[in-house]
């Protein structure tokens, strides 16, 4: 654009209609992207301008086309203007593999056009004039300008670029159209374009070891609060699906006192040690090394499910067929429970999962079947899916609060690195995540490894804090009867008394 050329000024700007301002309301435009409207607290603000930036291949073009086709299918008008040299037919050919693509909407409700030649011949002022005319001619409510970085590179200076963004934001308010400005440039947060637009969404595509993870951050969104931070997403045949961070969207309240009612563990002696079973609507973690029997404890817990009070096994490592066979070898007919709709098994193949996607799936499945018992086998499946492992306690805490609020008693299996009972727990913030902690561990007796169970914690409830040996046989888990520790010769008290007698003579010397 020649220096000194004037950019036409708008007569006003603003993202809200006057009637909505008077009422204190904000009209929003759905994005058409599953999960994104949750992050945007309802969708894009109508009549607002948003910058969407990210590297090539991150998903900007798919997101913006998904937005346009959603509005076209709803009977509204959308406009897609490109400042890139790439032909639209080539872009549409790529989009045609997506489920949201509907060629019948083009060009009647979704109109594609290039502003590349206009930019070359008439400069920034010509692009603004073209946009304003086409938005009004097509009565477009959803508008995309693909290639904001081209405007930045064409502008004579920063002031000219800033004036262009200002006028574009003004056009959004005047025409009542929501405009997405796509760019692959990463500029400072205090750059002029970010301060003037109503919203800013940053898309990232980064490596986590050998896997690539896409995520987005809403940096700015005028018109109300929104869940901040990083939210991961996938690109599938259905288009983009966003998985909001569960701890940022699930309501979390202070845990009430544990229920006085109990839910049977499936093991009579363990019920006794816990004061009748797991406290109802609580979360329990079974910690132990590989092979100790965590899954077996979970199977016996779920064996008590009924059609009136169904259960869910949410697992990562054993297929439903193997779990049914394992349950049968312990004397439990999971096939019959599944046929009676008393039990459901949700298997998550150990592939490149996203933790919030797993959490959504767990909550949705538990709600769908009206579950009252849930066994998650195991916690590592969530931890390995996290881009930032330090999120684990916050994520599970949010999931647990939701499940407890649904009246569900939850048991987790957690792999431990310690074979024997250790003074150290293996996981960060365990108390913040669960109500009850049970440790499965080995002890060496007579040159043989023996299995033991120790109850370490039951929230707001008394319990028996004594290790008990257990065996796994054809009838499942069986705990050995132990002597009363408070009777003479019966264990803990007797040993303490003997130690006391030995120490006394030393203290007199």
Q: Work out the radius of gyration.
A: 30 Å
Total domains: 2
Low-confidence stretches: 8-22, 488-509
| Tally of DSSP β-strands | 22
Strand arrangement, largest sheet?
5-4-6-7-3-8-9-10-11
Structural description of this entry:
The protein is an alpha/beta fold. It has two domains: 18-244, 3-Layer(aba) Sandwich (Rossmann fold); 262-482, Rossmann fold. The protein contains 18 helices and 22 strands. Helix 5 (116-138) runs parallel beside helix 7 (158-175). Residues 8-22 and 488-509 have low confidence and may be disordered.
Short note summarizing the structure:
The protein is an alpha/beta fold.
Descriptive keywords:
disordered C terminus; 2 domains; 509 residues; Rossmann fold; alpha/beta; nine-stranded mixed beta sheet
Sequence-ordered SSE layout with sheet pairings:
Layout: H1 18-23, E1 28-29, H2 36-39, E2 44-45, E3 49-53, H3 60-73, E4 78-82, H4 88-95, E5 110-114, H5 116-138, E6 142-146, H6 148-154, H7 158-175, E7 178-183, H8 192-196, E8 199-208, E9 211-221, E10 230-236, E11 239-243, H9 246-249, E12 262-263, H10 268-273, E13 278-279, E14 283-288, H11 294-302, E15 311-315, H12 320-329, H13 334-339, E16 343-347, H14 355-369, E17 373-377, H15 380-385, H16 392-405, E18 409-415, H17 430-433, E19 436-445, E20 448-458, E21 468-473, E22 476-479, H18 492-508
